[in-house]
Amino acid sequence: MRRLVLPLACVAFLALAPSPASACSCDGFATLPQELERSREIYTGFVVSIEPSPGQNPYEVLITLRPHWIWRGTPTDGVFQVITGVDEGVCGIDFTNEGEYLVFAHATNPYSSTWLCGRTHVIYPGDPDIDALGPPIVTPVRPSSWGALKTLYR
Question: What are the structural domains of the chain?
Fold first, then answer.
């Protein structure tokens, strides 16, 4: 009888113990055709700011990006804003102020969102996703400096 007490206590402890928090788990990454089908916005851009989620969700951040090339979507006041998880543990993308990102943003209200299991990533020379997307529909015009304008009109 005494030999059964310890194993039964261990089994009971394991059965009643709280389960660990689940981490992000991708069942395969999205293909380009899948992302093209479900993305409201597709663009490349540079991070302008990283802020806490306006929805008070401590596991999300709001990323503001200045677009470079746009295939789909319209920036508001010259920027796009996208929600993602704070880290990879909650399927968030680790946006930084370095590099240019190709963003596939899905429709959620009021902001778009992106996640680790999609195709959003820092672009690189010869990036096959950029090549597959073809030419961008919109290339935002960068305002010229006064010096450049004066040179044009002298």
Answer: 25-139 (2.40.50.120)
Tens of pLDDT along the chain (154 residues) come to: 555 444 434 333 333 333 344 578 888 889 999 999 999 999 999 999 999 988 888 999 999 999 999 999 999 999 999 999 999 999 999 999 989 999 999 998 788 999 999 999 999 999 999 999 999 987 665 555 555 444 445 4
Give pTM, 2 decimals: 0.75
Residue 37 sits at φ, ψ, to 5 deg, of -70, -40
> Positive or negative, the Cα torsion across 45, 85, 63, 106?
positive
Concatenated DSSP letters for 3-54? HHHHHHHHHHHHHHSPPPPPPP--SSPPPHHHHHHHEEEEEEEEEEEEEE-T
Instruction: Determine how many CB atoms are found less than 10 A away from the CB of residue 140.
Output: 15
